[in-house]
């Protein structure tokens, strides 16, 4: 899963990127509204975590433009604006959730996971892939009732395959779900990981 964090505080932005990356998400960070629009329109994100008080373009203007242009990513507003009218306005403009600063990182993660589940409209968090059951709520895989020990990257790839069950998943989509757009890490390992997951799950991978 790929997340765009839009936060002008360098310290908070780094904290969010580090925490979400450790949870297996591919995360990009931008610090102003103009960059947020450029990234969101150029790359496919599952979730956008959006601050409101941003340089260049205000967060609400970013939100309005993203929804106007048809952006379907889940959007969570993360802001110090704590008045009821602020929350109502954000939700009316198209945000899926609103979390007030200061906040619990565990709560943010839970809200992101819930938003991803709603986006992919899977009422049952456990998705069967051949002989493997993947729990999208707990990010765990089981085979014959026994939990499989997966690395964070393997878990993300398997989740991508599970949420796109029945459809061809391109190698680029698998890589984008694991690596941020500026990653200098070689993407070759994901070929081996996705091939292993594909064999175990009976899924097909599109090499293009």
Describe the structure.
- The longest helix has 15 residues, at 105-119.
- The model is unreliable at 185-190, 192-197 and 202-208 (pLDDT under 50).
- The chain has 2 domains: 2-119, 3-Layer(aba) Sandwich (Rossmann fold); 126-206, Arc Repressor Mutant, subunit A (Orthogonal Bundle), CATH 1.10.10.10.
- The protein is built from 8 helices and 11 strands.
- The protein has helices at residues 10-22, 33-42, 59-68, 84-92, 105-119, 152-163, 171-178, 188-201; strands at residues 2-6, 26-30, 47-50, 74-79, 97-100, 126-129, 132-135, 140-143, 146-148, 169-170, 205-206.
- 44% of the residues lie in helices and 21% in strands.
- The chain has a 5-stranded parallel sheet, sandwiched between helices. It has a 4-stranded antiparallel sheet with strand order 6-7-8-9, with helices on one face.
- By secondary structure, the protein is of the alpha/beta class.
List the SSEs and their pairings.
Elements: E1 2-6, H1 10-22, E2 26-30, H2 33-42, E3 47-50, H3 59-68, E4 74-79, H4 84-92, E5 97-100, H5 105-119, E6 126-129, E7 132-135, E8 140-143, E9 146-148, H6 152-163, E10 169-170, H7 171-178, H8 188-201, E11 205-206
Parallel strand pairs: 1-2, 1-3, 3-4, 4-5, 10-11
Antiparallel strand pairs: 6-7, 7-8, 8-9
Helix pairs in contact: 2-3, 6-7, 6-8
